[in-house]
Amino acid sequence: MLATTRERLTSTCRMDLLLFPFDTQECTITFSSMTSEEHAVQLEPLNSGTALTKVSDHLMVTKGEWELQNMTIILLNVTKESKSKLIYKVSISRKPMLYVINLIVPLLFFLVLDLVSFSISEARGEKLSFKVTILLSISVMLLILQDILPSTESNVPMISKYCLFIFAFVGLSVLEAMLVGYLYDLDGCCCKTAKSPADAQEDIQLEVDNQKEPAGAEGIPDKSSLPLDGPVGGDLLKLILQEVKAARQEVEEHKDQRKTGRYRRAAVIIDRVFFFFYFLATGLFVSFMNTLWVSNIYNK
């Protein structure tokens, strides 16, 4: 018996999104009789798989993001069940360019911008705010990806790992910028508190003694000391006090510089070491993801 009526069938297919958006899906549609045996109902295709592929590609009106690759026809005669089965295997591939432009390339640019941000001035407000902006932008990309991918997928797609690792890298970079900014602020606080109130009071006392000493020297001369009475003695004592004050200030400034500059030096060392390992890790990650992606695509 030859069936002449046409029926529209709707079929579902489980998708493997591991290589999204470079994935190729294979859907299988099987036709068989549930009650009749092989000798009663014989299923046979009218055209070959190549001809059916060309006709189907020509008749597809709404291709969307998918492209028909191939259609294979398999005819099986199951001896155990005494039934005839006609299997159509449909292979379709996704057009990835839209997702490459909207997801993969922007995320890579964000990672490059985060690397370039290490050249920004160490001012806490500029560098940290720039890195936080990049982190928020990556969060928006993750929300877009969540709307695209189904939540029932058992295997985590590679693009999700790609986004997750970039988010983790930028997050660590933000934490490092916060640490470096804290060390710079700590160094600034030490610079402000380097000169104590006791030192300032001692300077004032030296100024007062410097002003009073010449008058005292003229009224009550010290017998045990050199003759410093008169204008020459007062000027000499004033000059000695000024030299002592200048030497003490020079020693204190040198001590304060050594004390307050250590946090800045530690911040510079941390920033350079982190940039080296960060650059190395991101380079290895991008190379690994590219190799893994391409190898899986060709093996698929």
Shape: rod-shaped
Radius of gyration: 41 Å
Tell me the β content: 5-15%
What does the largest sheet look like?
A: 3 strands, antiparallel
Which class do the helix and strand fractions yield? mainly alpha
Alpha carbon gap, first and last residue = 41 Å
In DSSP terms, counting alpha (H) and pi (I) runs of 4 or more, how many helices? 7
Q: Strands across the major sheet, in which order?
A: 1-3-2
Q: What would the average pLDDT be, to the nearest integer?
A: 75
Task: Give the SSE order as H and E letters.
Answer: EHEEHHHHHH
Helix fraction bin: 55-70%
**Care to count the β-strands?**
3
Describe what is shown at a glance.
The chain has helices at residues 49-59, 97-116, 124-148, 158-192, 197-219, 230-260, 262-299, and strands at 24-32, 66-78, 83-94. It is mainly alpha-helical. The protein has a three-stranded antiparallel beta sheet.
Topology readout:
Elements: E1 24-32, H1 49-59, E2 66-78, E3 83-94, H2 97-116, H3 124-148, H4 158-192, H5 197-219, H6 230-260, H7 262-299
Antiparallel strand pairs: 1-3, 2-3
Account of the 3D structure:
61% of the residues lie in helices and 11% in strands. The radius of gyration is 41 Å and the shape is rod-shaped. Residues 195-201 and 210-226 have low confidence and may be disordered. Helix 3 (124-148) runs antiparallel to helix 4 (158-192) and helix 4 (158-192) packs antiparallel against helix 6 (230-260). The chain has a 3-stranded antiparallel β-sheet with strand order 1-3-2. Strand 2 and strand 3 (83-94) form a beta hairpin. The chain is mostly helical and 300 residues long. It is built from 7 helices and 3 strands, in the order βαββαααααα.
